[in-house]
Amino acid sequence: MDIIVTSIFVEDQDKALNFYTETLGFVKKHDVPAGGARWITVVSPNEQNGTELLLEPNGHPAAKEYQEKLFADGIPVTMFGVEAIQEEYERLLKNGVTFTMKPTDMGDITLAVFDDTCGNLIQIIQQ
């Protein structure tokens, strides 16, 4: 069994697509109509046939409440791996990304947390 798609809730799909592609550097894989929204996925530029991240609208009240509570409690909704966290941190800062936790050594890993501007906190980690 393989993980092929995972999702995060977003407040605005267009804004999320722009942030995840233009700011973070992911590649758009799918963008097709899906009812009143769109099926938008992005992938790592290094693994374009790998796991897709679905930018899912938070239109359902439970989804919106879940997203808001995690954000308010400072809990990241997902984690992305990076090769050089300090370089990635500095690159994202230059692109206007707001961090809630700068790179912090946690023994075998270093992690940082940022606001994706779409209602989520995202953790990056260097192992």
From TrEMBL:
PROSITE patterns in the cross-refs: VOC
InterPro entries: Glyas_Bleomycin-R_OHBP_Dase, Glyas_Fos-R_dOase_dom, VOC_core
Gene3D superfamilies tied to this protein: 2,3-Dihydroxybiphenyl 1,2-Dioxygenase, domain 1 (3.10.180.10)
Record domain VOC: where: 1-127
Protein name: VOC family protein
